[in-house]
Amino acid sequence: MNWEILTNSKTIENLGWTLLHSLWQIALIALVLFVLLQILRRFSANVRYLISVFALAFALILPVATFVGLERNSPSNPFQNESLTAENVGQIDENLRRAENLPTFTKTETQSANQKNDGVFASIKNFQNYFNKNFSAVLPFVVGVWFFGVLFFAFRLLGGVWQLHIFKTRGISTPNDDWQERFSALCEKLKITRTVKFLQSNLVETPIVVGWLKPLILVPTSVFLQINPQQLETILAHELVHIRRYDCLINFAQSVVEVLFFYHPCAWWISSVIRKEREFAADEAVIKSFGASRLIYANALANLEEIRHPANITAPSILVAANGGNLMQRISKILQKNTEIKRSAFSAWSAFAALALISAVLLTVFSPYSGEFVNAQTKTKNRKLAIGFVSIPPLDRTENAPKDADATARLMIAKLTQYKIPAIGFVQGGSVSDGEKLYPVRANIVRLWRDAGFEIGIGGYKHIWFYNTPFDDYVANTEKNERITKQILAEKNLPLRYFSYPFLNTGKSVEERIRFENWLKERGLTSVKYTIDNNEWMYSYAYDMERNDNDVQEMNKIRAAFLEYMSKMFDHYEAYSSEMFGRDINQTMVLTPSRLVADSADDLFAMIEKRGYKFVSMDEALSDEAYCTKETFVGEWGISWFERWAKAQGRKLRDEPKVNADVQKIWDENKSKK
After folding, report:
1. What is the pTM of this model?
2. pLDDT by residue (tens digit) across 505-524?
3. In order of start, what are the domains of the chain with their CATH numbers?
4. CA 87 to chain centre
5. Cβ-based neighbour number of residue 245 at 10 Å
6. Which residue among 1, 21, 327, 370 has the highest number of C-beta atoms inside a 10 angstrom radius?
7. What is the layout of strands, in order, in the sheet containing 320-321?
């Protein structure tokens, strides 16, 4: 009985016919929009955006008007006459005949006359009537499917709204005062009169705008470190433009329309056009405000996508994000516009080169996954890294010599060979010789490195601080190590080319350092400048202690903490690179040839590769012009060259990631014993 009521419901029938008519109505609107967009392709993105918004609005209004019209007129369904009795039908036919003063025909005669008079048109009409009759029969089923489809997509939309609520309330914090001031200045520059909150978040993967009544901009905490301030300012300006244009409100309305017309591909296409043109329009507004920063803005968008893409997270469509739309087309438009209008600032060739470079980067981002340890992010960067190991053989950080040092060396060499890392091993002579004769076992470890094809460099005979050592004594310490190491290299007629400062300490004065550098140069030696310094040796010491106790559980904890720490250190120094040079310079990293590094090699080197690094020789890494940057650091300790350059430029040093508390405790206990 209920099903009969449903099937005979005029509202259900009208809704069904509305859904049927919407198929051709929205398709026609989409066709008109497509033609208009082709005609207006040289107009501003904002014009195309407004036309697309009106098209989607019309795609909603027209079916609604159709439904209202059907409800208001409530035309009789011709197939409901089947419920009439034969007597009633005959009475109706008789009344019609009398009214029109027409002769009475039998059923057969009538059909014959219709066929003669109407011909092909009668067949078409019969087909239409047949279609209408059968479609009417399934109208309740169609409406039911549509209703459940709407419920499904509505719940999905509500899920997006809930996700926004989570973003707004969890893992957020206030950026530092410097960024708050920058943000206020941007609001003034863009004439934003509304109150806009600006927070950093540990949950979002890309800068987003949340809300339209009380707008909020959320920026991933990592972005502050991975994108330089100039680039991030253009991204923030993009989000502020969205707020000024009330794009979040329109985007929410789009999402509602998508829920109602989930079944229509043309509705989704129109909505996608709106999102694309909205981003183009926002880009145009940003470029208008930052006219001289087109290349910076284009690079900012590319870098932002590189940060977001590896997370492999699909953001809810309700979000308005800086890297939305077709990123490739956006960057292309930005740079093409640059060549047309700003020829005085950038030549056509330089703009084309920049466009080709960024295009290649983004095409690589979206290329298929390949390689065991290579993901999308790997292909978005042309980063290079050289690694130096100090010292070989490993230093004795425990009361006894490191356990099975030979096996550790062989394992380390195998991993370096596997990952094709042209590392340098720096010899500490005091671990190899007493100054007169070589220690066979430890000297053979150096030979293992040498024979595996790795370059051999030197530190000091003793691992001492330059700051605390008289110049002549420091030179003598280095010279003694040079003599021992050359003895091993001479066995294979190999040269000695590199020197690594113990503890990265370069003396108590600039003059003393220059004097020592000149001494190195006279002997054909080059000092290594490490950009990625770290406290790996503390983790290695803790690992050795637990390994001596055969505590596998604690060893695994230390390995996990070490990998997390190294990832943060790369974030830390990559931020320096972006901030100081506006690009990824060739990096150099110092490690010790410890058992921890050997046991963690697969995870550590895979992590480095996933960050987009190619392992290169020290020659290639140091050829980067960044290493010519002036630095005048003098201190009792050693610091990375990024920190030296920052100090020379008067920059504030970044807060360095902390060593794991448990590892720090083990190290502190070791120091207290001494």
Report:
1. 0.48
2. 999 999 999 999 999 999 99
3. 2-76+117-160 (no CATH), 171-365 (no CATH), 384-673 (3.20.20.370)
4. 75
5. 17
6. 327
7. 172-173, 197-201, 216-220, 208-210, 320-321
